[in-house]
Structures are given as structure tokens and as C-alpha cells.
Design goal:
This protein has 110 residues and is mainly beta. The chain has two domains: 35 residues; 74 residues, Beta Barrel (OB fold (Dihydrolipoamide Acetyltransferase, E2P)). A hairpin with an 8-residue loop joins strand 7 and strand 8. It has no helices and eight strands. Helix content is 0%, strand content 37%.
Length: 110
Amino acid sequence: MFEIRLQRCDDCGYVRAPEAFACPECLSRDATWTTLSGDGTVETFVWYLRHLDPHTAPLPEPPYNVAVIRLAEGPAIISNVVGVAFGELAVGDAVRAAEDPDVLRFTPAR
């Protein structure tokens, strides 16, 4: 089963990424690993139309996007949105974590 897990502060509830020794909001050292919903929103993105370094592997075939996804629980992470063609992605689009065992990717939440 695929799931996204991040630390949630036991004192203030702040969900943090990346993991940290103490909560950046209240400095508490008490945290629990929490399973997140996988829902998010595209905050910004860029399309790559060719490989910047063709010797780096593995990379998706161009064009591909790199996006900042704001998770429903709060943190923003860098990933990409699959299942969209060039020009179909927009800021504010709802996305959902894709079932990919190797890399955290997102798909449109349609």
C-alpha cells in the first residue's frame, strides 16, 4: 500500500517537511509520523522541453514538468504531475498522489 508519511508535532499539530529534530513552530521535540491524504494543489511549475543533461538517468522523456505541490495538510513539496500534456497544467489545479512505488508523483484530481 502506498502512503505519504510526515512528522506532525504532538503539541501544536504542525506538519513538517523535511523531518526535523524539533518543531519549527513551537520547538517541541515530540512528533508522530502521520499518514497524509495525498491531496494537494499546484502552487507553481516549470516545463522542461529538453534534457538539461542527457547523461543523467533516469529522466522522463521531454516535455515533463517539475512542480511545487502544497499538500492539504500544509507542507509544500517538489514533485511532478504526470498524466497531463504540455499546456494542460495550471496553478491552482487539484492533484492527488499517484500510485508509484519508486517516486512520489501526482496526477490530476479529476
